[in-house]
Predict the structure.
Amino acid sequence: MQTFIYVLIGTLAIIFVVALILGFLLSHKYADSIFKYLLWRKLYSLVQDKDYFLINNLNISIDKNQAPLKISHLIIGDKYIYVIASRYYESDLKGESYSSQNWEVVSNDVSLRKISNPMWFNEQRTIMLAKYLGWDETKPPLFVSIVVTNNKIDYKIRKDDNIKFSYICHKSEVKKLIKNIEKMDNHVVFDNSRMEHIVNQLYDLSKVNNYYDEKNKYSIMNKKGK
């Protein structure tokens, strides 16, 4: 009987260790997908709470001679339109400045690989979309670029004071960031007809991939309570 107990305990210990190893491997393999799903949940919660519009996974063709603009999430708030890119990185980000075209993924200050600056890239997409929808530099700022990363990385990057409508933040900070931007100044609030016109424009331009679940369809065209 005692031998059986030892064998059982040993077997359970092996199963536990194997489960831990498998869990570790799977969490790394699917880390990017899990991060994107959790970000979507956080943004969806924000638009429900604040009565905003949310469009996910846009694939917008604005010029037949250029590749479509692929946008992870787009939120139409009360004052601004937020073009949101989701980026998962395995280690910290290092760069000369927010405006430099290339950054590095680093671990203990050792470069793992070079990447295109996601802030610069998303800002260019944001400007292209804004101009296509009729905005130009003579008008007040309307579009905001936000790159959202996973929480466990640090940014070793010098901030540029002249960059005012382009941000990078952790997933845990994105709701607070958008709320603070909406409070930032006396920018004219969208009326419902203008907001719905913008949403319909974007929806007509896009091919929306309803990736997550039926709630995603709700978030594309409807406001809370409608």
